[in-house]
Amino acid sequence: MNDSQRGDFLRRARELLDSQRVGVLCTRFEGAPHLSLVAFVASDDLREITFASPAATRKVEAIRGDPRVSLLVDDRKNLGSDFDAGTALTVTGTAEPLSAAESSAVVPRYLGRHPGLAGFVASPSCRFFRIRVLRCSLVSRFQQVEELTLD
Q: Which range marks the domain in which residue 22 is found?
């Protein structure tokens, strides 16, 4: 992928991430895939995606056991046209809990995107996690697949 194609890929991925507020996080729990809806915020360079979770959940336990995760973000509308017009981005990477200082730093940006989650974020059981993005796969027009590995 040349620099122009890389720039276009990142622009389209950013547009999709900016247009959606919730993604589907895939972890591995007790040897099987486990899927969870998560509200997220992506870094400007798309190298990190942050989400919050109560500490006592399967997804958190799964991340502690195996930090490899995938996150699917798509723009489907539950219509037949989704196959031709829909776009889906899958990011794969490793998830890790944020420190208290890192969590405090991300709260304003997270709540700027998800103001309705202020009570959730203020809960003593809420923890923030960062996905360090290693690879992105962007699927559009049903079968057009592009991949980008981040260095």
A: 3-149
The pair phi, psi for residue 59, each rounded to 5°, is -65, -40
Number of separate domains in the chain: 1
CATH number of residue 19's parent domain: 2.30.110.10
Per run of 10 residues, the mean pLDDT along the chain (length 151 residues) is 91 96 97 96 96 97 97 90 87 98 97 98 97 96 88 73
CA distance 108 to 86: 31
Beta partners for residue 149, in sequence order: 135
pLDDT of residue 77: 87
Residue among 125, 91, 127, 92 nearest 106 (CA): 127
Give CA–CA dist 107/121, Å, rounded.
8
Find the angle CA(99)-CA(89)-CA(113) to the nearest 5 degrees. Answer: 50
Q: How far apart are CA 87 and CA 23, in angstroms?
A: 13
The two most distant CA atoms of the chain are separated, in Å, by: 46
d(CA 23, CA 65): 21
